[in-house]
Amino acid sequence: MNLNTEAEKKNTYDAIVVGTGISGGIAAKELTEKGLKTLVLERGRDVKHPDYPTATKDLWQLENANKPTQEDLRKQGVQNRTGYTTNQDTKHWFVNDLEHPYTEKEGTRFDWMRGYHVGGRSIMWGRQSYRLSPMDFEANAKDGIAVDWPVRYDEIAPWYDYVEQYVGVSGQNEGLAQLPDGKFLPPMELNCVELELKKTLKEKFDRAFTIGRTAHATAPLAHMPWRGTCQFRNLCARGCPYGGYYSSNSGGLISAEKTGNMTLRANSVVTEIIYDEQKGKATGVKVLDGVTGEQMEFYANVIFLCASTMGSAFIMLNSISNRFPNGFGNDSGELGHNIMDHQLGVGAGGMVEGFEDQYYFGRRANGFYIPRYRNVGKDKRDYLRGFGYQGGGSRQGWGSLVAEMAIGEDLKKMASTPGRWTIGMMGFGEILPDHANRVSINKDKKDIHGLPTLLFETNLKENELKMRVDMKNDAVEMLEAADVKNIHSYDNVTGIGLGIHEMGTARMGKDPKTSVLNKWNQVHACKNVFVTDGSFMTSAGCQNPSLTYMAFTARAADFAVSEMKKGNL
Ligand SMILES: Cc1cc2nc3c(=O)[nH]c(=O)nc-3n(C[C@H](O)[C@H](O)[C@H](O)COP(=O)(O)OP(=O)(O)OC[C@H]3O[C@@H](n4cnc5c(N)ncnc54)[C@H](O)[C@@H]3O)c2cc1C
Ligand code: SF4
Question: Ligand 1: does its nearest atom lie under 6 Å from the Cβ of 124?
Fold first, then answer.
C-alpha cells in the first residue's frame, strides 16, 4: 500500500474555501449546497453559534467597567485605533497585535482591524448593507481611473437579490439611481428627529434620507428557522445568540453544515497555494496547524480564497513558484496594489429642541442613511465620486442622578426622565484606486507562527482630502437647515483601513495585463482559483461593501460549479 497516496486521498476534496468570514460563509454554503465536498479552512479558533461569551453579560459583569486595561492596550494597540472595538465585551473578537504584527512604511499609516476565528468579522460587522449602483460600475471607465469593471450592475443585480433574501436585509425601497432598491425585509422606523431632518433635506436640498439597510431579521426567515427576529437590544458586536443579525456563524456555515458536505477545520493557517506547472492549475493549499505547528497539504479541484482582502493578498504574495515568481497569478504586477477603503471620521452633530414629549422604544441597532448626492446628476465638484452619511438621532442620558443628589420619589422621576434629543452624521467617502497604495511581504518581521508578515504603504490622496471638505461642511449645512442647535463638526483624518472596508488587492478587469482576476473572480492565469473577498473590487463606491462581496461570491460559486460540470476546471 502506498501511504502517501492514501494520505493524499484522505486530504482531497472537491473544493477548498479559505476563510469563514462574510465571503467564506457564503462560498461554503453555495458550494456545499451544489453538492461539492468542501473543506473550509479557518486560521483562528472555532466559534459555534450561539456560544458568544459576553452576549448576555450585564455591564457590571465586565471587567474594568468595560474599558480596555493597560495590558489590553499593549496587546491590541492597533486594534484599539477605532476607539470602540476592544472594550471588554468585544476585545476577544480582535487579534493580538503583538502575535500578528504588520509594518507601516515610514510616513504612512494603515489601520488593519482583524478577527481570526470562525466567522471572521461577520460577528462584529455593523451590518449596513447597500448595493453598488450602475453608476459605480461605470465610474472608472467614465473617469479614466485605474481599469474598467468587467461587470455591469445588471449582471450582478440578480445576485444582490439572491443574497439579500438569504441573509435577510431590512430596508426601504426609495427608487434612487445611485442606491438601487433591493429585496428587503420590513424597514426599521426612523424616530421623530430623524423624520424632521428627512423633511428638511427633501424640502431644502432635494436630497434623499432613508432608514439604514441592515442585515437584521425584522421578520421571520422561513429558510433559516434557527434564526430569531431581532430583539432591538443593540449588543450585536458581542455576537447575537438569537441570530437576530446575519453572521457566517448564524447563517452560511449552518446552511453548509446541514448539507453534510462541509468539513470545517479551525486553527488552519493557509500559507500557500500549491501550483502544478504540468497541469497548469492549482492542486491545493499548504496549511500550518496553528496549535500543533504541523504542516499539511490539502487538495481540491477548485479553491476559493475568502481570507479577507489582506489575508488573501498575503497567501497569493507568499505563493512563489517558477510560473509565478512575483506572487500567485501576479502576471500584471497589480497584486497587492490599488488598496481602497472608505474614508470616515468626518461629520457633525448637535442638539434638537422641540421634541421633549416624544419617545422611542427599544434599542434600534441601526441609524439613518443619506445616499450620495455629490457628482450625481447635474452636481459637479472639483473632486471625483462622492460620499454618503450614516447617523442617528437619540435621547441622551436618562436622568442626571449624580448631579442632582435626589432621593425617593424625585430620584425615581429623574431616573425615568429622558434627556435631550441629539442628532449626528458621519460621512463615508469613496477612495480612488491608486497603484501606489500597496501591500507587500515583509520577510524581516515574523508573526507568532514564524511566518512573514505584511508591509503597508497607503495614504489618502488629493481627491480624498478635497472630498473631506464637503463631507464636513455639508453635514453642518444640513443640520443648520434643520435648526439643530450647538452644532459641532469634526474632521479626524485617519489612515486608510479605519473604515474597515479594505478592498482592491487583486482587482478584477478585462485585461490580464492590468488585472489579477477576470469577471468571474477567477485568477486570469489560473482558472481553478477564485478570489471573492474584497480583494476583487475594482473601485470602492461609497457604500458599505460586504453585501457586494456576498453577491459576487454566490455568483462565482455558481459559475465554478457549472464550469466543473462542463469539465472546464
Ligand atoms: C466593527 C466593524 C464594523 C463593520 N461594519 C460593516 C458594515 O456595517 N457593513 C459592511 O458592509 N461591512 C462592515 N464591516 C466590514 C466587514 O466586516 C468586512 O467587509 C467583511 O467581514 C469582510 O469579509 P471577508 O470574508 O472578506 O473577511 P473576514 O470577515 O475578515 O473573514 C476572513 C476570514 O479569513 C480568515 N483567514 C485569514 N487569513 C487566513 C489564512 N491564511 N488561512 C485561513 N484562514 C484565514 C480570518 O481568520 C477570517 O475568519 C465592519 C467591520 C468591523 C470590524
Ligand atoms: S439588536 Fe437584534 S441582532 Fe443585535 S444583539 Fe439584539 S437581537 Fe441580536
Answer: yes
Beta bridge pairs of residue 264:
40
How buried is 172 (Cβ within 10 angstroms: 0-12 exposed, 13-18 middle, 19+ buried)? middle
Buried b / exposed e along 149-164 (16+ C-beta atoms within 10 A)? bbbebeebeebbebbb
Q: Is the CB of 305 under 6 A from ligand 2?
A: no
Q: Where are the beta strands (DSSP E) in 79-202?
A: 103-104
Q: Which three cell numbers stand for residue 507?
A: 482587482
Cross-strand pairs, 299: 12, 284
pLDDT higher than threshold 80 for residue 179 = yes
CA atoms within 13 A on the CB side of 132: 30
Side-chain half-sphere CA neighbours of 463 within 13 A: 16
The CA–CA distances, whole Å, from 344 to 123, 313, 493 equal 21, 24, 8
| DSSP one-letter string for 128-144 | B-----HHHHHHHHHHT
Please spell the DSSP secondary structure of 431-483, one letter per residue.
Answer: ----TTSEEEEEEEEE-TTS-EEEEEE----HHHHHHHHHHHHHHHHHHHHTT
pLDDT digits (tens, 9 = 90+) for 208-240: 999 999 999 999 999 999 999 999 988 999 999
Cell of 225: 428557522
Give me the torsion for CA of 239, 245, 251, 252, rounded to 10°: -100
Q: How far is the CA of 217 from the centre of ligand 2 (A)?
A: 9
Kindly report the CA angle at 342 between 88 and 77, in degrees rounded to 5? 30
Residue 284 phi/psi, 5° resolution?
170, -160
**Residue 541 Cβ < 6 Å to ligand 1:** no
Give the tens place of pLDDT for each residue, 42-59: 999 999 999 999 999 999
Q: Residue 263's beta-bridge partner residues?
A: 39
pLDDT of residue 393: 96
Pocket lining: 90 vs ligand 1, CB cutoff 6 Å: no
Q: Report how far residue 116's alpha carbon sits from residue 267's, in angstroms, rounded to the nearest whole number.
A: 9
- Helix runs in 18-118, H state only: 22-33, 70-75
Ligand 1 site, residue 266, Cβ cutoff 6 A: no
Q: Are 247 and 199 in contact (CB under 8 A)?
A: no
Helices 134-143 and 153-167, axial angle in degrees (round to 10): 140
Predicted model pTM: 0.97
64-91 pLDDT, tens digit each: 999 999 999 999 999 999 999 999 999 9
- How many CB atoms within 10 Å of residue 28? 32
> 17, 18, 22: which to mutate for ligand 1, most atoms within 8 A of CB?
22
Q: Which atom of ligand 2 is nearest to the CA of 235?
A: 5
Please tell me whether residue 194 adopts helix, strand or coil conformation: helix
Contact of 520 with 511, CB cutoff 8 Å:
no
